[in-house]
Amino acid sequence: MKKILGLVTGLMMAAFTFGQSTVAFTDASDSYNKVTATSFNFMFSPTHTAEDISSNAAYYESYFTVAVTAAGAAGNTVKITLVEDNEMARRVIMRLLVNLEVDSINVNGTEVERNAFMTKYIMVD
Predict the structure, then answer these.
(1) Cβ distance 68 to 23 under 8 Å?
(2) Which domains does the chain possess?
(3) Tens of pLDDT along 20-73?
């Protein structure tokens, strides 16, 4: 019986862990303007290591730079700065998020699906 309860508890904890967003967009405020923004700030949970983020970002150095700063138990703050402000550079941010297996981004307490996030907060019409 203990094994069954332990298994059920473990499965529930795993489900809750996967249900939580691991990335938050910290720039979202009333003064945020995606048209003029050339850098974007995120908070990644500890499930994404600094090495993981940096190694994935290294593929896109011609489009943007990524600065990863440890934020203790909260994870890592990540600043993405465009090398050149153009549509392709903004679009490639999506590739980084896909490579890091980020499906949704927390924006001011609301989970936003990755494609909707890119359209609303990164891509310029």
Answers:
(1) no
(2) 21-122 (3.90.1150)
(3) 458 999 999 989 999 999 999 999 999 999 999 999 999 999 999 999 999 999
CA distance 11 to 8: 5
Distance, CA of 115 to CA of 104 (rounded, Å) = 8
Q: How many other C-beta atoms are found inside a 10 Å radius of the C-beta of residue 117?
A: 23
The H-or-E segment that residue 70 falls in is strand 64-70
* Cα–Cα separations (whole angstroms), residue 36 to 70, 87, 111: 27, 13, 24
Instruction: Give the integer Cα–Cα distance in Å for 55 and 121.
Output: 24
pTM: 0.80
The residue written with tokens 């303007």 in the block is: 33
